[in-house]
Specification:
single chain; alpha/beta; Rossmann fold; 2 domains; four-stranded antiparallel sheet; 12 helices
Length: about 450
């Protein structure tokens, strides 16, 4: 079994020591466990997520979690992980499953009592996926008959917290210590302010959230020890230069060292291609519309055409004529989150045409000497490699499928670094965040 994405000493799977990962996705939890020296078995239905997991060397059963029997795991399972789809609570999409929330709560109550009413309840659901959020209780009820599992970790969007509290009430009756709440991934070194509802439960230790390692503003050292580091920025995670001077920039003359022509011909360069040299040159004929500069940009394009035709004198440029500040826009909607490279990203989510994350530029010092603003570089779509890094997957993680399929997997995954913070206490192993290489 390849160990490329985990420790070489990851222990074998033994009876009574299995870790079962329901709705395993492309391997966020499995990647974390591999770094911690442990391996799980993931149940996953999506074909491309299964291909990604296989390429990453993760044990996977391709199956519908709601149809798979529970008896193979009874008497063998130490830990259970679940990040079930939660259409009934998700803020994304049409939210047709909102009316299904009472049905999901009913299913959890029934399954906890050993009553399987899923078929009847499913007939009333607006979204056939809604009841998947109740599936972990089916497994937990079966495992509890033999005093398993030892621990449980579950994760989903913040609005799922009421459902986790229902799970918690049941688990406490079964002898678990349980904690539920909402955590921000940025507080644990993830370059993304991804907030998630978490359930932590254990039969052998007091359940409590891991201590945050990072804060929005770096904390000074005190008599009690060093303070928390500041949130990890996108620039730091992607290796695009110091956070106080984000890279890439557009230099005077259109390239490193300057040059006679501010907009040389040639195809648009991806940001990731430009990160080493710290420059990015836009195409002159494709400019992102910006309402407050629309007229000035139109005049600039007209002047450029005249210059190319030889009907106007060539302009001169100041040394800082074409410097830009880059930010990440989370989607195409009017209220999209926009974060500068010197900050963590907003929550990354894909799977819908409107959820296209793009790099956008704002001029920091972009005026020509004649007072005309320079054209704004067009937005650039984030790459799967970049999105994966912002989720704390390795830069070379083997995403399977086309761009849309890869982005969907990335957006749905739990950040491995956050997952490792949640799992390490249950495994009684130390966590070294440096083991999570990003852009390297």
């Amino acid at each position: 079994m390849p160990r490329r994405y985990g420790r070489a000493d990851a222990g074998p799977l033994r009876a009574g020591h299995l870790i079962l990962d329901l709705f395993a996705g492309p391997g966020g939890w499995s990647r974390a466990l591999g770094v911690l020296g442990v391996q799980d078995i993931g149940l996953e239905w999506d074909a491309w997520a299964c291909k990604t997991r296989s390429a990453a060397g993760q044990l996977t059963i391709r199956t519908d979690v709601s149809m798979y029997p529970t008896w193979p795991w009874v008497g063998r399972t130490r830990g259970l992980i679940a990040s079930p789809p939660c259409q009934a609570w998700s803020m994304a999409g049409k939210r047709l499953g909102l009316v299904d929330q009472p049905l999901v709560h009913q299913a959890v109550e029934d399954l906890a009592a050993g009553r399987d009413t899923r078929e009847r309840l499913l007939a009333s659901c607006r979204d056939e996926r809604s009841l998947l959020a109740a599936e972990p209780m089916r497994y937990l009820h079966a495992l509890n008959t033999v005093g398993e599992p030892e621990w449980v970790v579950m994760e989903e969007v913040p609005d799922v917290l009421p459902l986790w509290k229902q799970y918690a009430a049941v688990l406490r009756r079964w002898g678990f210590s349980v904690w539920t709440g909402v955590l921000n991934a940025a507080d644990y070194g993830v370059p993304q302010t991804r907030r998630r509802a978490i359930l932590l439960a254990s039969r052998v230790r007091t359940a409590q959230p891991p201590a945050p390692t990072h804060a929005q503003v770096a904390e000074p050292e005190t008599l009690f020890g060093p303070g928390r580091a500041g949130w990890v920025s996108m620039a730091e995670a992607l290796g695009w230069g110091a956070t106080d001077r984000p890279v890439p920039t557009v230099c005077a003359g259109g390239g490193p060292g300057g040059g006679p022509e501010p907009f040389p011909s040639g195809s648009r360069k991806a940001l990731s291609d430009a990160r080493e040299r710290g420059t990015w040159t836009p195409r002159p004929d494709r400019v992102a519309p910006q309402s407050r500069r629309e007229e000035a940009a139109r005049e600039a394009r007209q002047r450029a055409r005249e210059e190319r035709a030889g009907t106007a004198p060539a302009p001169t440029f100041s040394p800082e004529a074409y410097r830009w500040s880059w930010s990440l826009r989370s989607n195409n909607q009017a209220n999209a989150t926009v974060r500068a490279l010197s900050e963590p990203a907003g929550t990354l989510f894909f799977g819908h045409r409107a959820n296209e994350c793009t790099w956008i530029a704002e001029p920091a010092a972009a005026q020509r000497e004649d007072g005309v603003l320079a054209p704004v570089p067009e937005p650039i779509r984030i790459t799967a490699r970049e999105a994966g890094i912002l989720q704390t997957f390795p830069a070379d993680y083997p995403w399977a499928g086309n761009k849309g399929q890869a982005f969907s997997q990335i957006g749905n995954a739990v950040p491995p670094l956050l997952a490792a913070h949640l799992l390490a206490p249950h495994l009684s192993v130390p966590l070294n965040p440096d083991d999570f290489t990003l852009a390297a």
